[in-house]
Specification:
binds ligand BJW; alpha/beta; globular; Rossmann fold; SIR2/SIRT2 'Small Domain'; three-stranded antiparallel beta sheet; 19% strand; 234 residues; 2 domains; six-stranded parallel beta sheet
Length: 234
């Protein structure tokens, strides 16, 4: 049995990371087009760096850790892999590292990773835990005055192509079980993955409430991810 899991901001909400579109979500107080588009970055890179630096700091604070949902998914992968009965891929739209911290191994971060930056020129990735809004040396160009301009957050903004789409399409077409957890079903192409699964695939949605993608699922489990994910798996 091949298993494909898609997670969104709702799975990390109970770990203390705000979602995007719920009340008190991340977009409150920020115009999306200012901080999550290539045009916004070109207009005001400092504002964008400040936005991601604040989120990097928060992600690294000691109070943020994986919750029962992240941990259950990691256990599920381990058990499934040990049985050698099929593939297990966890696709996350989240840019936090909580799945990895929980022990998930086969994780595809389709919207990028908060703790990485990318050189605009070379495309090279660097682990990054620092503040890009201060004078931080670029690993490649330590003496270059304009070095900050070379780096951008390794995230997928609106209008950019998400990562790993070929692998996701293949996993979706071969999945026997598709589970979506804590995603609003508003952002494409992630919201369309459910449509690319085969008719015989069991499709389960875990969310606090209905989403525009809900009609495409066969089963709807309503409640907190930290409760519903462990319940489904055990
Ligand atoms: C809980 C819970 C708890 C809370 N337990 N549940 C039509 C078709 C195709 C594309 C488009 C289209 N129309 C427009 C587009 C383009 C656009 C798009 O989709 N726009 C829509 C807004 C309409 N898409 C793009 O631009 C994408 N690129 C693209 O399409 O390229 C073209 C292309 C595609 C394919 C092939 C070739 C070319 C790129 C999208 C990039 C998204 N980037 C962001 C920012 C990442 C960096 C950052 O974090 O700053 O990604 S936007 C933001 O939204 C972030 C998220 O990953 C993403 C999804 O949000 P998510 O995870 O669903 O969170 P929320 O807050 O929306 O929902 C939380 C949910 O959890 C809620 O439902 C709650 O109920 C629930 N919940 N607590 C269970 N405890």
């Amino acid at each position: 049995m091949n298993i494909l899991v898609l997670t969104g901001a709702g799975i990390s909400a109970e770990s203390g990371i705000p979602t995007f579109r719920d009340a008190d979500g991340l977009w409150e107080g920020h115009a999306v087009e200012e901080v999550a588009t290539p045009q916004g970055f070109a207009r005001d890179p400092d504002l964008v760096h400040q936005f991601y630096t604040a989120r990097r700091r928060s992600l690294l604070s000691p109070s943020i850790c994986p919750n029962a949902a992240h941990i259950a998914l990691a256990e599920w992968e381990r058990e499934h892999t040990a049985k050698s009965v099929g593939d297990f891929l966890l696709v996350t739209q989240n840019i936090d590292d909580l799945h990895a911290r929980a022990g998930s191994a086969n994780v595809l971060a389709m919207h990028g990773e908060l703790l990485k930056v990318r050189c605009v020129e070379s495309g090279k990735l660097f682990d990054w835990r620092d503040d890009l809004s201060v004078d931080t040396p670029h690993p490649d160009f330590p003496d270059d005055e304009s070095r900050r301009g070379w780096l951008r957050p390794h995230v997928v903004w609106f209008g950019e192509v998400p990562l790993g789409l070929d692998q996701i399409a293949q996993a979706a077409s071969q999945a026997d079980l598709f589970l979506a957890v804590g995603t609003s079903g508003l952002v494409y192409p992630a919201a369309g993955i459910v449509q690319s699964t085969k008719p015989s695939c069991r499709k389960i949605e875990i969310n606090l409430g209905d989403t525009p993608a809900s009609p495409a699922f066969d089963e709807h489990r309503r409640g907190q991810a930290s409760v519903e994910v462990p319940k489904l798996i055990r």
